[in-house]
Design brief:
Layout lengths: L2 H11 L11 H11 L4 H14 L3 H5 L3 H8 L6 H16 L8 H4 L7 H12 L8 H10 L9 H14 L4 H14 L18 H5 L15 E3 L2 E7 L2 E3 L1 E2 L10 E2 L8 E6 L3 E4 L3 E12 L6 E3 H7 L7 H20 L1
Parallel strand pairs: 1-8, 2-8
Antiparallel strand pairs: 2-3, 3-9, 4-5, 6-8, 7-8
Helix pairs in contact: 1-11, 2-3, 2-8, 8-11, 9-10, 9-11
The structure holds a DNA duplex.
Length: 334
DNA sequence: AACGCGGGGCC
DNA sequence: GGCCCAGCGTT
């Protein structure tokens, strides 16, 4: 049985991650949502800020939407944080401000699926259930040499059955150990089999083809778009428009895609290509200086403090900032 | 079952 | 330049 070796390895080699310090459902939940499709190192600074700003379900339930999105700025998949607020409200209203304590009940909450429910239930409440994420899929597909396409539901189900049959206590450590092994040793490329505590029983190691697993369906090509953004500027302020609540970067702030009415001066920006996972934006940017300031113009410090601007717009924002500052200097010297 | 949804680090 | 990450909700 590999479990004993795995648990021993975990005790020795687990990273000291901040969200492992406390066995509290709230912080486990926050870390799990943040870690969805996101590397741990990328989400750590966000985690600390988030817990400080919203220390519990109640404070999160009362959060301002704009503040929430701002604190998430740059993490991506912004619906995660909106679902977190919905989840917090539901816990406050239905469960006296606590999480329900079983995987089954957790699964019903917004933003919590099979994996996250299993992670919270096992890590925070010691329920003996699985938490099958991408790491665990990879570890098991190699360990049992599963050559089916793991993006297929049927394959995930098959692997989940194997994981369920393997569950060992302490379950909190076991589930995290599987993930940690996937994150540190059984990594996607160039797996470090020499350092693997369960190498002896690993079928792919025996075959010598661990690096060819798991088998994943080809991704379809990205769609390409060529948007032009008009950055309306009045003196030192920039116009920002809240994007539609649906689609890409929903509800975040961005630049206009229409010309303003009376343009005093135009400056073209250096084009920039932003790659999303499923879309490619070849962006053109034109700074338009306007005389009349309507609503929704923000100073650079306001933008920095309050407004959530996705990464796609940061290069144009920086360029615009530079142009504004140069222009100020110019006008002073006159 | 397939698709939409971000961003970044690593090879 | 592609891959893939402590996935979930919608269609």
């Amino acid at each position: 049985m590999f479990q004993e070796e795995l648990l021993r390895w975990y005790k020795q080699n687990a990273r000291k991650l901040v969200f492992r310090q406390k066995k509290e459902a709230y912080s486990i939940w926050v870390s799990e949502i943040m870690a969805q499709q996101t590397r741990i190192e990328a989400m750590l600074p966000y985690f600390e800020r988030f817990i400080e700003r919203y220390p519990n379900l109640k404070s999160l339930a009362q959060a301002e939407d704009d503040d929430l999105v701002k604190i998430w700025q740059g993490l991506g998949y912004y619906n995660r944080v909106r679902n977190m607020k919905r989840c917090a409200i539901q816990c406050v209203e239905q469960f006296q401000g606590q999480f329900p304590k079983t995987k089954k009940e957790l699964c019903k909450l917004p933003g919590i699926g099979e994996y996250t429910a299993g992670a919270i239930a096992s890590i925070a409440f010691d329920e003996k259930v699985s938490a099958v994420d991408g790491n665990v899929i990879r570890v098991f597909s190699r360990f049992y040499h599963i050559t089916d396409d793991v993006s297929q539901m049927s394959t995930k189900k098959k692997i989940t059955e194997l994981v369920n049959a393997s569950l060992t206590e302490p379950i909190s450590d076991y589930n995290q150990a599987l993930m940690e092994l996937g994150a540190l040793v059984c990594i996607p490329k160039n797996p470090r089999c020499a350092a693997c505590p369960i190498q002896k029983e690993c079928q792919s190691y025996a075959y010598g083809d661990a690096d060819s697993l798991p088998v994943l369906a080809k991704k379809k090509p990205r769609r390409v778009e060529n948007p032009t953004f008009y950055i309306w500027v009045c003196q030192d302020k920039i116009h920002l428009k809240k994007r539609s609540q649906k689609g890409l970067l929903a509800g975040l702030f961005g630049f206009d895609e229409t010309l303003p009415e009376a343009v005093e001066e135009k400056r073209s920006l250096e084009p920039y290509t932003h790659i999303f996972s499923h879309v490619e934006w070849h962006m053109k940017g034109i700074v338009c200086f306007v005389k009349e300031k309507s609503e929704d113009f923000y100073s650079l410090s306001q933008i920095h403090d309050k407004v959530s601007i996705p990464s796609a717009f940061q290069p144009f924002l920086k360029q615009t900032e530079k142009i504004i500052k140069e222009r100020e200097k110019c006008q002073k010297s006159l």
